[in-house]
Amino acid sequence: MPDITGKFQGGLTLEISPRKEDLTKYVVGQMDLLPSFVTSSPDLQKKIKAEIPSVANGMFLLAARHMNELSEQPTRGDLESALHSLPTALDESYERTMSRIKSQGGKHQSLAEKVLSWVVCAKEPLYITELQHAVAVKLKESNLDESFIPPTKTIESICAGLVTIDQSNVFRLAHYTAKEYFERKHTFWLPDAGTMITTSCVTYLSYSVFATGFCDTDYGLRERLRFLPLYKYASSYWGDHAREAPVLDQQIIQSFLGRDKNVEASTQALLADTSRTFWPAHYFGSETSLGVKGLHLAAYFGLRQTASAVLTTTPSLLDERESTAVHRWYGPREAGMKLLGDCCSIKELCLI
């Protein structure tokens, strides 16, 4: 919490930390969450009550993480082994948790890594249904198969206590120290996060449900946003993730940008201010499309390589009218201006 403590520099401070007996009471209160072979063994409970307060270093959070780790042990032997090697620092605890997640293998590991990638790297917090749709996306599918949407309990449990749902129904990391840890370590533990998120967003926007293009009524757009909860986020941020990703699947991106109707639908969500009770009529009429093509979105997000590829496959977009449209819609955005230049000529893009 440096941003908070920084505001009180020079003032008197009083550090408050739990006593060992406070931690012991906490452990006793959480004992019922451990496997049945613990609750039926007084001597094992005694060991746990003695060990966890000793290694928690006066931190309830670390004690909670220890209890969570013990709750995952399948046998008494595994639990006793874990009990004698509990970490004494939060970073080490987070590292052990990530190692356990990585060691799961198969579908469990894949889902946990997807969830953590979205929670850690998303440009804004994701609501429950947004995250559920995000991790349910399957490549090369024309629509979302809702049978792959995981329950919230599964999402929380598979991430071993690293994520939680707050009072706003938003998925977040369970503690600010976890946020700080992943700010430093996410490229190590989640190296493919940017690529995965970009691909998932573009795949979502390529679904056939968007092939009808933009909605021409307030009601129609609201219903689309309601039933396709990742629609707004994917439209608003896919290009930002693409620009930052170390590796991109250009084939998937080009496929999306080549679908004019899907591009129109994405543009409408990108421009819509969902905080309003009513959106201006131009979000729904012909002005919404205004000749918006994949090239315009590539320029908007400052994707030089992608824009160049679009021009290579679609030379007709060199028409000067299209250039004017790009500047009118996306010129004010800094990334778009860097890409297009002050002359606003798409043709120059090929020469950069």
Question: Can you characterise this structure?
Answer:
- It is elongated and about 70 Å long.
- The chain contains 21 helices and 3 strands.
- The longest helix has 16 residues, at 106-121.
- By secondary structure, it is mainly alpha-helical.
SSE arrangement:
Blueprint: H1 2-5, H2 20-30, H3 36-39, H4 42-55, H5 60-71, H6 76-83, H7 90-104, H8 106-121, E1 126-127, H9 128-136, H10 152-158, E2 163-165, E3 170-173, H11 176-189, H12 193-205, H13 218-227, H14 231-244, H15 250-257, H16 260-271, H17 286-289, H18 294-300, H19 304-313, H20 320-330, H21 334-340
Antiparallel strand pairs: 1-3, 2-3
Instruction: State mean pLDDT (0 to 100 scale).
Output: 83
Overall shape: it is elongated
Number of strands: 3
Strand content: under 5%
Strand arrangement, major sheet = 1-3-2
How many helical elements?
A: 21
State the share of residues found in helices, binned by percent: 55-70%
Our measurement of the CA-to-CA distance between the termini, rounded to an integer number of angstroms, reads 44 Å
- In angstroms, what is the radius of gyration? 25 Å
Largest sheet: 3 strands, antiparallel
Return the domain count. Answer: 3
Question: What structural category do the secondary elements indicate?
Answer: mainly alpha
N-to-C series of helices and strands: HHHHHHHHEHHEEHHHHHHHHHHH
